[in-house]
Specification:
35% of the residues lie in helices and 25% in strands. It is α+β, with helices and mostly antiparallel strands. It has 2 domains: 62-173, Uridine Diphospho-n-acetylenolpyruvylglucosamine Reductase, domain 3 (2-Layer Sandwich), CATH 3.30.465; 179-286, 2-Layer Sandwich (Enolase-like, domain 1). A hairpin with a 2-residue loop joins strand 8 and strand 9 (158-159). 47% of the residues are buried. Bound molecules: flavin-adenine dinucleotide (FAD).
């Protein structure tokens, strides 16, 4: 279990990292927490010719709460978010999801941005990025770009990133005031990647009707899926069990997962619907209270 040969580079700043990625060619890869890249290199599933280690770039090591949302730099670890009570108090879906990522050791080292760049279809952060309308801020040899999360994920482990580009920051939008949110998943064992997961944000109007709903799923397709039909079906309705179940059934009907070694497609489709119903019911029960 040894990686193929590679050269190692440790830039001290963002500009230097981008310059290195630009000159080292398409086979160079940034290294953040190494919790996905290093195992893949050891198994020879990834054979980068060069590693550009981001860990010495202090300017990327931050997360902060802004009025509009949570901003995370490329070296923000899962655990930084998990241990920040102010973040958890502002978004229950994040509080639900982050402890489900691997184990503490993995969360201590792995980064939010690394997870988004890696784009595992079953991972929590990509799904949260779609749920919370995140914006991915990228810098590269040809300048900076801002990519909505809904356009960033192109396929399993495939993103809109171009050769030499680095994600410097991701901005997640807080749910609107008065919203409730939740994230639920099913994994075979604690710490395993989920078979499927679902997140929901529900915003209630003055009469208790659903003013806005947002639903996203992980593990039921090659990319995180936003369930737009279910969101539309809920809008204007009283968010009772019947409405949540109907929306979840519509989601299950629309899913097109494939069979794999972990579960048959039919199971995953049904699980997706069940998880959406649970996420919606929990989000509704939290709406109007803190955390959202
Ligand atoms: C046993 C185990 C269990 C796990 N369970 C889960 C789980 O349940 N849920 C889950 O979501 N994850 C899980 N993970 C993965 C973990 O969350 C990783 O932290 C995450 O997927 C990648 O983050 P990283 O910082 O380690 O990235 P790295 O491994 O350093 O990099 C991953 C990929 O992203 C690229 N990359 C990293 N940073 C950037 C950047 N700023 N710009 C552009 N590209 C970049 C790298 O080049 C590489 O291709 C698990 C890992 C292990 C080992």
């Amino acid at each position: 279990m040894k990686p193929a040969p590679f050269t190692y580079h440790a830039p001290a700043g963002i500009a230097e990292a981008i310059a290195l990625l630009g000159t080292l060619g398409d086979e160079a890869r940034p290294l953040a927490g190494g919790q996905s890249l290093v195992p893949m290199m050891n198994l020879r599933l990834a054979r980068p010719s060069a590693i550009v280690d981001l860990n010495g770039i202090g300017d990327l090591d931050y997360h902060r709460i802004e009025t509009e949302g949570l901003v995370v730099g490329a070296l923000c670890r899962h655990r930084d978010v998990e241990l920040d009570g102010d973040v958890l108090a502002r978004c229950a879906a994040v509080a639900d999801a982050v402890p489900l990522i691997g184990h503490v050791g993995i969360r201590n080292r792995g980064t939010v941005v690394g997870s988004i760049a890696h784009a595992d279809p079953a991972a929590e952060w990509p799904c949260l990025a779609v749920l919370l309308d995140a914006e991915i801020r990228v810098e590269g040899p040809h300048g900076a770009r801002r990519i909505p999360a809904t356009e960033f994920f192109r396929g399993a482990f495939a993103t809109d990133l171009r050769p030499g580009e680095l994600i410097v920051e991701v901005r997640f939008a807080w749910p609107p005031a008065g919203s409730g949110s939740a994230f639920v998943e099913v994994a075979r064992r604690h710490g395993d990647f989920a078979l499927a997961g679902a997140g929901a944000v529900v915003t209630l109007g003055l009469e208790g009707e659903v003013r806005e709903a947002r639903v996203a799923l992980a593990g039921v397709g090659p990319v995180p899926i936003r369930a737009i039909a279910a969101e539309a079906a809920l809008r204007g309705r009283r968010p009772d069990r019947e409405a949540c179940a109907a929306a979840a059934a519509a989601v299950a009907e629309s899913l097109r997962p494939t069979d794999d070694v972990h579960a048959p497609a039919a199971y995953r489709r049904r699980l997706g619907g069940t998880l959406v119903r649970r996420a919606l019911e929990t989000a509704v029960s939290r709406a109007g209270r803190r955390p959202s």
